[in-house]
Design a protein that fits this description.
alpha+beta, Phosphatase 2c, domain 1, four-stranded antiparallel beta sheet, 7 strands, about 25% helix, flat
Length: about 140
Amino acid sequence: MNDHLARFSVTRKFVTLFIAIFDPSDRSLSYVNAGHNPGIWISEAGVKLLPSEGVPIGMFALAPQVESRVELAPGDLVVLYSDGITEAADSKDEDFGMERLTSLLEAGRALPPNVLKDRIFAAVESFTRGVAQYDDQTVLVARPT
């Protein structure tokens, strides 16, 4: 996909990407973060970010991507989101931000993933108080069993 975008995109388009595979046999999460927002891993030890180790795909034909791996424990959460969540702005042009998102996730760590996802969207909507948003707002909340 990277080579195709780099070679054939007339307008030099590129895409951020976070792709992950969970292996239940050893509870490992292998992932590549190509210029996307950091994933959020919440465990009993606290919040850890799963940062980008590469550039967005399509930016450079031979851009290397780095695979990272973490081992999850029962009850851990992994949260992926688009920048439309953290960059959602209120009427004062203040962003929702990572601090609000991570605080919300820590407080709701024990909730079922679908409930926590709904709380994230509700908190962003409440924060923006009806201000039109022009970016996608996507959230994935996963708790491996």
